Amino acid sequence: MTISTWFAVLAFFLFVAPGLLYDLASAKKRIKRPETAFTEISRTALVSTVCSLAALGLLAIVSWITGICGVHPLPNLPALIRGGTVYIADHLGEVVFAAALGLALSLGISYLGYWYIHRGEPSDIDYISAWRSVLRDDRPTPTTPVHVMVKLKNGSTWAGRVAKYSPDPDLADRELVLEPPLAARKDSTVDIKPLNAKWTRVILSGPEIVSIAVSYGDATSPPPPPAPPTTP
Question: Has residue 222 been placed in a domain?
Fold first, then answer.
């Protein structure tokens, strides 16, 4: 790789990595809101620029202090600007050390900024769907079967054992797959009845689901439907 290519890689890390680190860390502390790609990229670039400029300032202070002591571990910035690639080739070790130190400082400043801004917030925000929490995380054991009774918008009810599901936080992208024992009813005016054994899977679309009743453990039949309200 040429020197100019290395500088392009360095520029990427200096003007992207600190902002990306801050964004990834703070994502656990803030509520996600819809935003455009331009907004996200602008925030990342702004944070990276601030952190990198702060790191450059610290490097300048360190260079000045070490220069007073007669030590020059960092490149001479005015000479670097005037000499360009020639200076870099002649002082490659110093330039690489300064670049690595600057990147480390900018990342450290980014994380310190995240810690300071969110220091009073006690816990992280977990962006997991209720489906994953109930259908997987809340099981007594990892192998405990999960049986559900699902009510749909059209009034029908489906019951069965959970075979698979998509845990996507976006409801529009979720699906629930049931396996035997399967049962269904058209509406609340009729009893829920077992399906013929030839039917082995039922796929339910997330946006069509109104509610899900859940039970854990072995079952030879689906959970019974709730009793209809009595009229006085």
Answer: no
Q: Which domain holds residue 92?
A: 3-117
Task: Dump pLDDT digits (tens) for 130-174.
Answer: 888 888 888 999 889 999 999 999 999 999 999 999 878 778 888
Pairing of strands 193-194, 202-205: unpaired
- Per-residue model confidence as pLDDT tens digits over 86-120: 777 777 777 778 888 888 899 999 999 888 887 77
**CA-CA distance, 103 to 10, in Å (whole number)?**
8
Write the DSSP assignment of 214-226 as a string of letters.
EEES--SSPPPPP
Percentage of the residues of the chain whose pLDDT score is greater than 70 = 82
- Cβ-based neighbour number of residue 48 at 10 Å: 25
Residues 88 and 143 in one domain: no
CB 177 within 8 A of CB 202: yes
The CATH number assigned to the domain holding 158 equals 2.30.30.100
* Number of other CB atoms surrounding residue 232 within 10 Å: 2
Shared domain for 7 and 100, answered yes or no, is yes
- SS3 call for 63: helix
**Does residue 197 fall inside a structural domain?**
yes
DSSP-based three-state secondary structure for 163: strand
Number of domains in the chain: 2
Burial class (CB in 10 A: 0-12, 13-18, 19+), 132: middle
CA distance 113 to 40: 18
